[in-house]
Amino acid sequence: MKRLFVDTNVWIFLSHKDHILHQQSVQTIQTFYNAGYNLIISNQVIREFLSQELKGQPTIQKRQETAQLIVEWRNYFSVIYDDNIAMDYLLQFVENKELDISGRLIHDANIVATMLTHHISEILTHNSDDFKRFESLITVHTIS
């Protein structure tokens, strides 16, 4: 079965019906699903989603709704986890002069490291520029 990693930004678009990229995200996800793809996220994506959704002083209701959304979405998305092998990949990326990984790029590099650990070669994202440096390792599909 083909596997598609779904980046955090796509998850955010999917969860906000009023977002300009919501409908396109829904259609794109549906297209991949209908084509036989298993939709994948990682524990990092869940953490990033929680961080984005619960900025500031969210109400207990917002916290509960966000937690419930993640519970529901775990029925549709397989969750993978980073591990020592992913850490080894990440450290190789950091040491690679051509990749020039630092700062906020560490998070994207960790996503790619986790993907490679789990033999996933395709990602769906809105931020394709963040993953261009990895195009020799993965295929980047863009929502724009």
Description:
The protein is of the alpha/beta class. It has helices spanning 8-15, 22-34, 43-53, 60-73, 84-95, 105-117, and strands at residues 2-6, 37-42, 78-80, 122-125, 139-142. It has a five-stranded parallel β-sheet, sandwiched between helices. The model has no long low-confidence stretch (mean pLDDT 96).
Reconstruct the topology from this structure.
Blueprint: E1 2-6, H1 8-15, H2 22-34, E2 37-42, H3 43-53, H4 60-73, E3 78-80, H5 84-95, H6 105-117, E4 122-125, E5 139-142
Helix pairs in contact: 1-2, 1-3, 5-6
Mean pLDDT: 96
Which consecutive residue ranges, at least 5 long each, have pLDDT under 50? none
Question: Strand content of the residues, in percent?
Answer: 15-25%
CATH class division: Alpha Beta
Q: Fill in the CATH topology.
A: Rossmann fold
Features:
144 residues; alpha/beta; Rossmann fold; five-stranded parallel β-sheet; 6 helices; globular
